[in-house]
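Design review, sub-item: ligand-bound model
Attendees: FS, YL, KQ
YL presented the inputs for the NDP complex:
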Amino acid sequence: MSDNETRQWRLASRPTGEPTDENFELATVPRPEPGPGEVLVRTLYLSVDPYMRGRMRDAESYAEPWGVGEPMEAGVVGEVVESNHDGFEPGDVATGNLLWADHAVADGDELRRVDPDLAPVSTALGVLGMPGITGFFGMTDVADPDPGDTVVVSAAAGAVGSVAGQVAAIAGARVVGVAGSDEKCDWLTDDLGFDAAVNYDTTDDLQAAFAETCPDGVDAYFDNVGGPITDAVWGQLNRNARVAVCGQISLYNATEQPTGPRKLGQLIQTRATVEGFLVGDYQDRWGHALERLAGFIQAGDLRYEESVVDGLENAPDAFLGLFEGENVGKQLVRVGERE
Ligand code: NDP
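KQ shared the predicted structure:
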């Protein structure tokens, strides 16, 4: 690749069921040049996220489908190479919605500056970025636990879940996490201060596991996964419980529409409230969430982890790993180093 070229991943074809390497294509293209008001960014880290599976599908959703043959978008933290925007100069670190690429241009108005002295710049894609903000608002505004409440969080060792659970603990709740390995469960209870954790992969009777870990029932459930885990948590909901539906990753590769919701009957007896939410709806309050999250980190109340895969060429593997639970905390791809 020459200096005036760049690599970018494109959607080669739409997957049926679980995506494979064949759905992705790495192209070498001329390096883009920034137009008026635009900024050329060299990628340092790019974020792979479960919602991207929805963008591979040709179906209406809250995020536009990617076109076959088109470059794929991603949250990126990068270094400004060239700027035609007053707010940025070469060497600045910026974050925004760019591409699975070594370089990309964006409208400077759509980028946010990242202060490299405040925290490692990669956190702008995780705990101090979209996933952290999702965990924060989903817990404070939707699940909204009172002190002493029992809160269950699924995919608790992931980017969103690990923040959501710790925010609940900061609010004084008793927090039970669900994750797919003993190592993850130990991380939740030993390092993040969760009160208990359920390894759904080695538990035959999830109902019994939640009955045991939540002896006073469940007052709030932060759902990242759907499917059998959610079915089992619903069996323990207390009267007036709140369910914050954040994600349904167990269903993202489904080839048929799932039947259900299967447990609606339980809402009658419990008078529980189930509410879906999207982090984008909180855009005008992102600054508030970032301030609170940074404060929690500084106070030692919020810990985070990042799983980093090296090399743009390995971005599809990093993405596919999300569905196998390979990540602890935020899954990132390191594409370049700061100069
Ligand atoms: P994570 O970092 O949590 O990564 C995904 C995790 O999901 C994996 O590590 C894996 O952990 C778990 N998982 C994968 N497949 C299954 C399965 N079949 N059953 C149970 N668990 C599974 O990703 P994010 O934190 O980025 O996202 C978490 C959820 O939040 C996703 O559903 C995502 O779509 C949603 N989301 C929603 C937003 C909103 O605005 N509503 C914004 C951002 C994310 P394990 O080893 O424990 O199985």
